[in-house]
């Protein structure tokens, strides 16, 4: 059963029809229905006249499923991955999972027009909106004057963050911090993998095989560690103020 956090119902945000969900996600309605039939996508909430309505959690889960497919996982493997996720994950939590999964893959930005970008975003975008999305490294102008290179999997999360009152400079600073620590973690993990392989056999194929098997575990560990650490920092910073 999908939770309120995942479906996005009760948040005051407009619910999406299956056609709108497919358009925002950049997939076909047939794909949405197929994933639903396999149990990979939670069922929609039923609105007036029993029309299915989808929320931000459906959009984030759909992006995660698509990214896992790009990784080469089978539907059975994707189902196992999703079943291991904690219950009640919010759309933001799912977006974090998708971002970490995508971090193991080469960049696969898509070329899109301003009209298509706004259709995928589900809203008109001001120049300030475009600048903020660029600061989040979600898109960049392609030089044509009306086209963009866009990360489709992160676009919907970036659009939701447009309404968060934070300056583009702060977004850029946060991105710098995250990249610095992510690269440091990647270097250390690569060293650990390399040392583990070399203690047995200096084989490049073995190194790649170990890395491939470890990636899902590492992704899960990074997500869990980040979420717990962030919650601890927020409690330490604001817990006393709330009690007061």
UniProtKB/TrEMBL annotation:
Pfam families tied to this protein: MerR_1
PROSITE patterns in the cross-refs: HTH_MERR_2
Residue intervals of the HTH merR-type domain: 15-84
Transmembrane feature ranges: none
Organism domain of life: Bacteria
Matching SMART domains: HTH_MERR
Keywords: DNA-binding
Classification via InterPro entries: DNA-bd_dom_put_sf (IPR009061), MerR-type_HTH_dom (IPR000551), MerR_fam (IPR047057)
PANTHER family: HTH MERR-TYPE DOMAIN-CONTAINING PROTEIN, REDOX-CYCLING DRUG-SENSING TRANSCRIPTIONAL ACTIVATOR SOXR
Protein name: MerR family transcriptional regulator
């Amino acid at each position: 059963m999908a939770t309120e956090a995942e479906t996005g119902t009760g948040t005051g945000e407009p619910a999406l029809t299956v056609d709108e969900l497919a358009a925002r996600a950049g997939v076909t309605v047939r794909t949405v229905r197929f994933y639903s039939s396999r149990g990979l996508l939670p069922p929609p909430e039923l609105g007036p006249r029993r029309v299915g309505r989808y929320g931000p959690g459906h959009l984030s889960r759909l992006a995660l499923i698509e990214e896992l497919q790009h990784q080469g996982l089978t539907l059975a493997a994707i189902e196992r991955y999703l079943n291991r996720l904690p219950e009640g994950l919010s759309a933001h939590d799912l977006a974090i999972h998708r971002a970490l999964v995508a971090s193991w893959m080469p960049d696969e930005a898509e070329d899109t027009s301003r009209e298509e970008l706004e259709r995928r975003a589900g809203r008109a975008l001001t120049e300030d909106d475009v600048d903020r999305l660029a600061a989040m490294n979600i898109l960049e102008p392609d030089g044509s004057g009306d086209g963009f290179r866009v990360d489709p999997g992160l676009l919907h999360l970036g659009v939701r963050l447009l309404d968060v009152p934070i300056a583009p400079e702060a977004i850029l600073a946060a991105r710098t911090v995250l990249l610095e620590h992510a690269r440091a973690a990647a270097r250390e993990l690569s060293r650990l993998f390399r040392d583990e392989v070399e203690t047995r056999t200096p084989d490049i194929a073995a190194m790649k095989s170990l890395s491939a098997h470890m990636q899902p575990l590492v992704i899960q560990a990074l997500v869990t560690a980040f979420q717990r650490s962030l919650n601890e920092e927020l409690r330490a910073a604001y817990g006393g103020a709330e009690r007061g």
